[in-house]
Amino acid sequence: MRARLLAASLAVLLAGACSATSGKVPERALVPKDDTGTVAENDRPGTADWRVRRTGAEHEIEGFADRVSVLPGENFRLFVSTTTARFSAQAFRMGWYGGKKAREVWHSEETAGVRQPTPKIDPRTRTVTAPWKPSLTVDTAHWPAGAYLIRLTAASGAQRYVPVTVRSKDTEGRVVVLNATTTWQAYNAWGGYSLYKGPSGGDGDRASGVSFDRPYDANGAGKFLTYEQSAIALAERLGVPLAYATDNDLHARAGLLDKARGLLTLGHDEYWSTAMRDHATKARDHGVNIAFLGANAVNRHIRFAGTRLGPDRLVICYKDAATDPVARTNPKESTQDWRLPPHPRPESDLIGIQYVCFPAEGAFTVLRPDFWMFRGTGVRAGTRFPGLVGPEADALNPLGPTPRPIEIVARSPMTCGNRPDVSHASYYTVPSGAGVVATGTMRWVCGLRGAACGHGVTDAARAFVAASTETLVRAMAVGPLGRAHPVHDNLKDVRDSRAG
Fold it and tell me: Which segments of the protein form a coiled coil according to its record (predicted)?
């Protein structure tokens, strides 16, 4: 029976209609419709040809923008380097678009290509920057807010992406989709250095600061495509009022979430500044729902600094208080894991659970089948979705802080390296009525691709994740989750190595 219900849910999802879950949600009819926003935008014809077909040689074509995000109508500059004589650029807004997932909103004329200078590397921090001259100025007039990929195409046919977010002017009454730009940059090894490794291949010569003044490595948008694009397509298909912003915006704009309905962080949003965390916590305490559709979020504490191209374009993270000079002068801003000294503030205080494992492998295992987010999916206590937990996972923090009341809705046995462990998914509420959902696995968004996600993830898992996420996003758009969905606290009943 469960398999038939999940298969039915998948069939409905693929047809672009409402999932089986939706009919079970009492406030479904109350969900505000964004009839002049995402609905109208996604009714426009999509563009099937938006993917990078061939990246070519390492430096055949690559580029970056001088703005992480812009308001609609603002300009940004593209800095492009190519080994070919000419190149062109196309801008694609990412969404649903009848299943095509993108719409072309702009393209350039063919432009003369130049091979730009080699990277500069700061010997103190190993920060890589590209000292390039601008190639194009892009006017975003008439571009709707959203997540964009600029596809660069060399005369040879080689292609790479440049991600840019057109942020929303207003977030009131909307669910804010947050692009995890600081995490994208932390893992970016373009020029030989990231926050994880240097030319040695290990962490002994890693960078302690990474700059947005350089291209992203590989195809230019790997983290976005893996951990965000599928969730954005689903959210846009629902037609609820959405807004778009980046980690950089959450840091810089104290009022970003004022009067928003929710904040949606996606598969991997690991690097947070003090301001980011303070702004999210304040929003929660004023009734803004938060969903963490991943794992390992808010794990690394960072600082921002400016570069020659503007403010907040340098992400600083020493990962070790012993090497961060600020640890002695301003310990609250030292850049190690949030939970570590000199001023420990475990991320479980915001998320409910926290990062516990890499590499993690396990089956997402339902503990509370009557949890409101799972209604209509046909799951039972103990229903398992193989491969859906990993490669990083969260669990209860046995030493706290753990918000109360909290409901553990999934308890998933997993292997952590070579040892057995457990992952959790959770839901808690605060006095403002806001609810916070955490899936506890980095593969939640990947799971929306079903078998295409790999790792043993099935199409049954796709149906479950899609239906559950649809229910969540619709409910977040209505208002504070706790008003319609009170928590059934079961912390004392969870008995495992993490709960104590």
Answer: none
